[in-house]
């Protein structure tokens, strides 16, 4: 009889531990599903819809900037070599406006498509729990970096509005071009924040593998 009670004590402790963990999990899930959880969910849905519309505008502007950059560069090359009359300010417009818009306005689209570079040879070999912790840490660091850059570039863009510097070939101010950077980081920061909800499911945009198919 003593042996039987001693043999069953260890499994019993394990069962109590497992039940305790499940009880805590059910409690917090119930808390999140309450009124506060519903309000938080509605706020996140509103933010997601707003971010989706905002991102579409940025993507359209980025595609338009890419098209204009291609057309302007081609027209400048043809005019330069065929007519010996280059287009005035074509290089500066491409450098200061079009290229900046094409790169930074499409950052959230690149993130959503899993186009950012990741080095996962170590994370892929971690146990499930450590891998999940590493994914959350990566998202937290990415969000902090995006937020810092967003604040810094916004301050720089505000200061640039009071700068009267213009292009050397055209009377166009350079200051408004600074706003392409914070606008792109605003969409990216919001997307990374919303993406935190998807980390535990393994369907986060940051974890999406965008690999070429053979």
Evaluate the radius of gyration: 26 Å
Q: How much helix, percentage-wise, in residues? A: over 70%
Mean pLDDT: 80
Strand content: under 5%
Weakly predicted, low-confidence segments: 1-21, 24-29
SSE blueprint and pairings:
Layout: H1 2-32, H2 35-82, H3 90-104, H4 107-112, H5 128-161, H6 180-195
Protein model, in words:
The structure is a single chain. This protein has 214 residues and is mainly α. The protein has one domain. 70% of the residues lie in helices and 0% in strands. The protein is elongated. The N and C termini lie far apart (66 Å). 16% of the residues are buried. Mean pLDDT is 80; it is low at 1-21 and 24-29.
Keywords:
single chain, 214 residues, mainly alpha, 6 helices, disordered N terminus
Summarize the structure.
The chain is mainly α. 70% of the residues lie in helices and 0% in strands.
């Amino acid at each position: 009889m003593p042996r039987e009670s001693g043999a069953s004590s260890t499994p019993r402790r394990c069962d109590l531990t497992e039940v305790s963990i499940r009880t805590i999990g059910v409690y917090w899930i119930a808390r999140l599903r309450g009124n506060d959880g519903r309000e938080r969910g509605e706020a996140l849905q509103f933010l997601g819809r707003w971010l989706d519309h905002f991102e579409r505008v940025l993507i359209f502007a980025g595609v338009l900037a890419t098209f204009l950059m291609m057309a302007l560069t081609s027209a400048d090359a043809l005019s330069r070599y065929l007519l010996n009359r280059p287009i005035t300010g074509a290089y500066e417009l491409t450098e200061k406006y079009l290229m900046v818009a094409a790169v930074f306005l499409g950052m959230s689209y690149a993130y959503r498509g899993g186009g950012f570079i990741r080095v996962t040879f170590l994370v892929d070999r971690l146990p499930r729990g450590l891998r999940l912790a590493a994914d959350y840490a990566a998202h937290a660091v990415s969000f902090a970096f995006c937020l810092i850059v967003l604040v810094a570039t916004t301050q720089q863009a505000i200061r640039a509005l009071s700068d009267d510097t213009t292009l050397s070939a055209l009377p166009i101010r350079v200051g408004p071009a600074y706003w392409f950077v914070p606008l792109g980081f605003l969409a990216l920061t919001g997307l990374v924040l919303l993406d935190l909800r998807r980390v535990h499911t393994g369907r986060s945009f940051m974890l999406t593998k965008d690999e070429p198919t053979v």
